[in-house]
């Protein structure tokens, strides 16, 4: 049983694999102040709720974009699950040629790009809708070309409400029309339709560079919601990073 963790800025995505099958998955809030022992209690309870015993964990892999939590998850896997987890980062075998500064490439970006490449035929555009809105490009030859980074939908919403005295935090949901008749409706329109147009525009620009036939895969917590507002996604896969982590583990477990 392989335990895979995608440690993001906002959430941790955790998955259990039996071979290539993702048999269980969870999300919980990222907390950089939480200790390895505390994460162990949480994860052990999640496993137990799904009828899984932590003694069955035979391997581990994780990617962390929160530097302070990387050693915490190292300790979590070694002390509480008895495995030396693969930490995704510089020097990890990916099976892809990477045309990007290695030390600046986030491990989560490697995971989603590789997951998409193994599950779909290139060329590929991956739209990762999480804390950031990140676009990844994979060439027809299977090379990782790079991408683009913009603020995430939630981050932009919080920043707007936090910096404008007369605006408030709102529930994000697809608006019925572009012209809002009150502040909440106007913010929903500006954010939701605005991001949909930005995503479609960036996908169009990426296709001009990687190929008009590029398959577009969306992932991340905001992907299902944005899929209601745009027709540019060919596939939505919320578990793409977990599958990418599994593939990275398989590529490196013998090294």
Rough shape?
Answer: globular
* Poorly predicted runs: none
Supply the helix-strand structural class: alpha/beta
The strands making up the biggest β-sheet line up spatially as: 3-2-1-4-5
Terminus-to-terminus distance: 19 Å
Figure out the total of helices.
Answer: 7
Name of the CATH class of the largest domain: Alpha Beta
Computed over alpha carbons, the radius of gyration is 19 Å
How would you describe the overall organization of this protein?
The chain has 255 residues and is of the alpha/beta class. The chain has two domains: 86 residues, Nucleotidyltransferase, domain 5, CATH 3.30.420.40; 142 residues, 2-Layer Sandwich (Nucleotidyltransferase, domain 5). The chain is 37% helix and 23% strand. The chain has seven helices and ten strands.
